[in-house]
Design a protein that fits this description.
about 190 residues; alpha+beta; 2 domains; four-stranded antiparallel beta sheet; about 30% strand; membrane; LexA/Signal_pep-like_sf
């Protein structure tokens, strides 16, 4: 083998190695995004001031395989209006629990929730809005569903409007905000 042949063989081996590294990285990214984590941008201000419009969040999918979301968890789910759109809200109640909205506060199974993340914004019924699915309170969450609300109670269409969210529509449990860096923190 001549020096030129040896050099071109070495170059083609290096290129092939880089191609395999890139393909492996792409495959790993696909597997992680499909089965383990999801990264998404918050499109609205419905979770202010906990989450800002435009924040990038990381959510995990794995624990949803054997565990259900709990009260206080921040989750993403497919929008009832458009399954291609992900919404992010806080779990207020789970299957079998009763939600009541009175005097601007949320009660679950008769106990008033301590909700510092709402910053005192009143939690009122959206029953008077055209298209509201829940018009009577107290409301019992059906089996296989959760009741969610945005932290920005005066600017959030949530279970008060579109009804309970089926567990099969929940896509992730949100772990943390990672961008912008000055908002980065766990949820």
């Amino acid at each position: 083998m001549t020096h030129t042949e040896d050099s071109s063989h070495h170059t083609s081996s290096a290129v092939l190695e880089y191609v395999w590294i890139i393909l492996g990285a792409l495959a790993l990214t696909f597997v992680l995004r499909t089965f383990v984590f999801n990264v998404f941008t918050v499109p609205t201000g419905s979770m202010l001031n906990t989450i800002q419009e435009g924040d990038l969040l990381v959510g995990e999918k794995v624990t949803l395989l054997w565990d259900q979301p709990k009260r206080g968890d921040v989750v993403t789910f497919r929008s009832p209006a458009d399954e291609e759109t992900l919404l992010v809200k806080r779990v207020i109640a789970t299957a079998g629990q009763t939600v009541d909205l009175r005097d601007g506060a949320v009660y679950v199974d008769g106990e008033k929730l301590d909700e510092p993340y709402t910053e005192g914004k009143p939690s009122t019924s959206l029953a008077s809005q055209p298209g509201a699915k829940i018009t009577d309170y107290p409301y019992t969450v059906p089996d296989g569903c959760i009741f969610v609300m945005g932290d920005n109670r005066t600017n959030s269409l949530d279970s008060r409007f579109f009804g309970p969210v089926p567990l099969k529509n929940v896509t992730t449990k949100t772990l943390f905000i990672f961008w912008p860096i000055n908002h980065a923190r766990g949820l």
